[in-house]
């Protein structure tokens, strides 16, 4: 139930003000707040309570309705608002996450920020500003007034029905010759560009991408492969023009010369930079077995790949190689569209190393119920074709699977080959090495996103390479701030999600090397919370139908709290509600 809203509206015919109680209207010449006669000459644009007519004000609850650390979803003129009380003070922001519109009332409130229960985005409850990703935009914030034990919220009429807010940004200033070149067209580059403009950077920003589209919401490619490109765009094309962000598409860097501070592109052109961001991401690892060159063998890398996979698999036989997150999501998507779907994995269960055998077995059973056939502890040795097209897949076990399409989801390779002669340091996997400020070993050259190996705060600065959308966004922001000499460190807690047949598994932390899993709930009932233990501490957690547990754990980790094995083992999870 939402609190009943009291509104003041002006009757155009009589000039009188009308007080609305829910669906009832009461004409009045007296201020409900002061009890005094209304002075209609007290100034244009104001109602009898002294409120600006550009705003709608509603009494949303009593001051005593919320205790510190509590949230309540209220309404003002049918606009849902998240009302929060912390340290005795009330604040109000938009009620929906700016990422996919999830209800923040179901999220985790810790201190002065609320974390989305679905994908982990965080917002400051006083300003509405986004502080952790995914998503790009902030929440609208609203004026709150407490008077005579009642809480009032005011909403600007122009912002009614809006649930997100774009931060103010500057533009390029004529005569400023400084240039920042961003190589890559993903979330790291986009967040870097936007953060620069939000912090009044007045120089030239150039984003170079091999893609045919402006930055898109890539996590959707494996979950909804039929979507049109316009629905995937993170920003419309005119956004880049409006904020003087040059977007060069279908271009690729082939070399970098840090001494001359130049980048050479695949069209032969040479471009000067003052500061450079390497955010080229990773590319899908292709199959290398005989027959991998046949028509019908595909990888998922781009929007065009997703569209082709969808079109070629509808009503046809499909084999997905690699029981990875991408592979499983593709199999899940195709389950009710292809004539048949087979999954080939080299382990006993999907996600066995990352999520554990119990969760892997559960996800396997989910897809089997949708007629996906699994060939586990197996691999592809040859793809046999006919007239240049895929016909069969031969497995190590000797099984032969008829198919029309083969989709590989067998891992990724960092896109760093163009740095060979640049002296930019890379690790054994060819990931670009950066510090906590996203700086490489070369002055004025920064790295961000999946292509990087960076120090992870929650693992005592262990250097890691993590391909999470949320982290790439955070990297881009931190890189931009340090380009501007802000000295901001990357300290984000990894947050990841995967969607299979409409069910979403959430994950936070970094569980590599875990030695034990402690479960709450029951995996076989598909409602659980899993704690991953290493050295008697919780290093990661995963859940299904257990919101907002993972979001709250992410906030606890972000605040530097150590969660012990004993806490995870306890039947009393009240510590998780702190």
Automatic annotation (TrEMBL):
Signal peptide bounds: none
Transmembrane recorded as keyword: no
CDD domains hit by this protein: Rieske_AIFL_N
A single GO cellular-component term on record: cytoplasm
InterPro entries, sorted: FAD-oxidoreductase/Apoptosis (IPR050446), FAD/NAD-bd_sf (IPR036188), FAD/NAD-binding_dom (IPR023753), FAD/NAD-linked_Rdtase_dimer_sf (IPR016156), Reductase_C (IPR028202), Rieske_2Fe-2S (IPR017941), Rieske_2Fe-2S_sf (IPR036922)
Record SUPFAM superfamilies: FAD/NAD(P)-binding domain (SSF51905), FAD/NAD-linked reductases, dimerisation (C-terminal) domain (SSF55424), ISP domain (SSF50022)
Record's keyword annotation contains Nucleotidyltransferase: no
Highest taxon listed in the record's lineage: Eukaryota
Rieske domain span: 58-153
GO molecular function: 2 iron, 2 sulfur cluster binding; metal ion binding; oxidoreductase activity, acting on NAD(P)H
Keyword vocabulary terms for this entry: 2Fe-2S, FAD, Flavoprotein, Iron, Iron-sulfur, Metal-binding, Oxidoreductase
PANTHER family: APOPTOSIS-INDUCING FACTOR 1, RIESKE DOMAIN-CONTAINING PROTEIN
Family the entry assigns: Belongs to the FAD-dependent oxidoreductase family.
Protein name per the record: Apoptosis inducing factor mitochondria associated 4
Species the sequence originates in: Salmo trutta
């Amino acid at each position: 139930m939402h609190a009943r809203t009291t509104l003041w509206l002006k009757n155009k015919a009589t000039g009188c003000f009308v007080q609305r109680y829910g669906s009832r209207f009461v004409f009045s010449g007296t201020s409900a707040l002061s009890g005094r006669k209304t002075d209609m000459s007290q100034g244009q644009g104001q109602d009898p309570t002294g409120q600006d007519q550009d705003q709608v004000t509603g009494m949303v609850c009593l001051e005593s309705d919320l205790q510190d650390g509590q949230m309540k979803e209220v309404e003002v003129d049918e606009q849902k608002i998240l009302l929060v009380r912390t340290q005795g003070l009330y604040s109000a922001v938009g009620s929906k996450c700016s990422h996919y519109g999830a209800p923040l009332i179901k999220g985790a409130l810790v201190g002065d920020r609320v974390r989305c229960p679905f994908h982990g985005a965080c917002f400051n409850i006083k300003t509405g500003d986004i502080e952790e990703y995914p998503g790009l935009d902030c929440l609208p914030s609203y004026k709150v007034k407490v008077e005579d034990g009642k809480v009032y919220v005011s909403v600007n009429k122009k912002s009614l029905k809006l649930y997100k807010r774009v931060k103010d940004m500057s533009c390029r200033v004529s005569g400023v010759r400084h240039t920042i070149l961003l190589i890559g067209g993903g979330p790291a580059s986009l967040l870097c560009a936007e953060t620069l403009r939000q912090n009044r950077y007045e120089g030239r920003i150039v984003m170079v991408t091999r893609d045919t589209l402006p930055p898109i919401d890539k996590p959707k490619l494996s979950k909804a492969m039929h979507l049109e490109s316009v629905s995937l765009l993170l920003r419309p094309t005119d956004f880049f023009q409006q904020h003087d962000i040059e977007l060069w598409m279908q271009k690729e860097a082939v070399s970098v010369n840090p001494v001359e501070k130049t980048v050479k592109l695949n069209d032969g052109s040479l471009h000067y930079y003052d500061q450079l961001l390497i955010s080229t991401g990773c590319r899908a690892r292709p199959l290398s077995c005989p027959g991998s060159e046949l028509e019908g063998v595909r990888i998922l890398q781009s929007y065009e790949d997703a569209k082709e996979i969808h079109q070629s698999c509808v009503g046809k036989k499909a084999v997905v190689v690699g029981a990875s997150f991408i592979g499983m999501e593709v199999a899940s998507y195709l389950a009710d569209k292809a004539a048949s779907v087979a999954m080939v994995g080299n382990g006993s269960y999907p996600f066995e190393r990352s999520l554990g055998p119990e969760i892997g077995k559960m996800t396997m059973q989910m897809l089997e119920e949708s007629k996906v056939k699994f060939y586990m502890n197996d691999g592809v040795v040859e793809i046999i074709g006919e007239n240049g097209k895929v016909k069969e897949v031969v497995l190590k076990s000797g099984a032969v699977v008829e198919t029309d399409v083969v989709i590989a989801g067998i891992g990724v390779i960092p896109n760093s080959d163009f740095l060979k002669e640049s002296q930019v340091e890379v690790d054994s996997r060819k990931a670009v090495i950066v510090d906590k400020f996203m700086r490489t070993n070369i002055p004025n050259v920064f790295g961000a996103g999946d292509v990087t190996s960076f120090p992870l705060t929650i693992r005592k600065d262990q250097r890691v390479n993590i391909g999470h959308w949320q982290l790439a966004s955070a990297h881009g922001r931190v890189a931009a701030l340090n380009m501007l000499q802000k000295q901001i460190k990357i300290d984000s807690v990894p947050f990841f999600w995967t969607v299979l047949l409409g069910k979403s598994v959430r994950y936070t932390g970094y569980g590599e090397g875990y030695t034990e899993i402690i479960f709450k709930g029951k995996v076989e009932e598909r409602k659980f919370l899993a704690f991953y233990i290493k050295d008697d501490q919780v290093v990661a957690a995963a859940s299904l139908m257990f919101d907002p547990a993972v979001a709250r754990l992410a906030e606890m980790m972000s605040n530097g709290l150590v969660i012990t094995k004993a806490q995870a083992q306890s039947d009393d999870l009240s510590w998780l509600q702190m």
